[in-house]
């Protein structure tokens, strides 16, 4: 199965399809990119484990043929830490969302970065709690409407990628579900890098987020991501030049790749 180009679909648990995601959801794109990256590593289902918490993103391991853990809200990283430290020989990948990772699981996320545990975390950031009714999350952009911010979000959002860099992760990258090729490459880079890796994938959620923010159609959200993403090199150059950073734009690319000492790496 593994290592054969185009065979990533063999990783799907066919008896669990079709999936439950809403029409136009971007999570499927991220799952495909992740499985393609995993397959390109030559890994097998027997030596790979997928772990998740709660939310739309966290349904993903249920569609994959490997052993998996669908855990409690915000606790995917503690479960993944236990698996990795007890079995360093296993490849451990975490699927999570912005609510799961940044709110209830926020401290777990920060300390896993600090400890630099050998995990690859793929976060599907749709800016809200999608599964539970479209409530605002710690990543909801300023001014955006959700069921709990009906007059527009007034709290500044977390920047998950910058947070992971500051906390000590060895590899951090952000792309969107529009950037399929770059996202796949970023996940593979994370799998190849010893230590903690965060790949933040901004995804469209036309049902829970888009329709409240004048982006009702999936294509409109994909177009918005394409038009508002700025390559990280250009973003950094603008910072250095003192050029005002547009508040509705966001940087994409590789934020960091380094070699701090890591926990859970096979000796």
Automatic annotation (TrEMBL):
- BP GO terms, sorted: cellular respiration; organic acid metabolic process; sulfur compound biosynthetic process
Query: Pfam families from the entry?
Result: TPP_enzyme_C (PF02775)
Q: Which domain of life is it from?
A: Archaea
Residue ranges occupied by any Thiamine pyrophosphate enzyme TPP-binding domain in the UniProt entry: 54-200
Q: Which molecular function terms from Gene Ontology are attached?
A: oxidoreductase activity, acting on the aldehyde or oxo group of donors, iron-sulfur protein as acceptor; thiamine pyrophosphate binding
The alphabetical list of record keywords is: Oxidoreductase
The protein's matches in InterPro entries, at most eight in alphabetical order, are given as: 2-oxoacid:Fd_oxidoreductase, THDP-binding, TPP_enzyme_TPP-bd
- What's the protein called, per UniProt? 2-oxoglutarate synthase
Organism source for this protein?
Methanofollis fontis
Source taxonomy: Archaea, Methanobacteriati, Methanobacteriota, Stenosarchaea group, Methanomicrobia
């Amino acid at each position: 199965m593994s290592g054969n180009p185009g065979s990533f679909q063999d990783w799907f648990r066919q008896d669990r399809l079709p999936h439950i995601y809403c029409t136009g959801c971007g999570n499927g794109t991220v799952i495909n990119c992740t499985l393609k990256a995993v397959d390109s590593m030559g890994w097998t289902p027997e030596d790979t484990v997928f772990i998740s918490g709660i939310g739309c993103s966290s349904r993903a391991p249920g569609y994959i043929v490997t052993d998996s853990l669908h855990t409690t809200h915000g606790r995917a990283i503690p479960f993944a830490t236990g698996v990795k430290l007890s079995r360093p020989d296993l490849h451990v990948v975490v699927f999570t969302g912005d609510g799961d990772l940044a709110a209830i699981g926020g401290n777990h996320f920060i300390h896993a970065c600090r400890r630099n545990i050998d995990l690859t975390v793929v976060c599907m950031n749709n800016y809200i709690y999608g599964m539970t009714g479209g409530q605002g999350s710690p990543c909801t952009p300023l001014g955006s409407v959700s069921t709990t911010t009906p007059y527009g979000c007034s709290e500044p959002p977390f920047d998950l990628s910058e947070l992971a860099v500051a906390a000590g992760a060895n590899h951090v990258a952000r792309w969107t579900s529009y950037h399929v090729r770059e996202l796949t490459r970023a996940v593979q880079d994370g799998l190849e890098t010893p230590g903690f890796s965060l790949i933040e994938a901004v995804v469209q959620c036309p049902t829970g987020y888009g329709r409240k923010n004048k982006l009702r159609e999936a294509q409109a959200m994909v177009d918005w991501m394409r038009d508002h993403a700025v390559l990280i090199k250009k973003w950094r150059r603008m910072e250095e030049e003192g050029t005002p950073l547009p508040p509705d734009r966001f940087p994409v690319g590789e934020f960091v790749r380094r070699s701090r000492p890591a926990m859970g790496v096979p000796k």
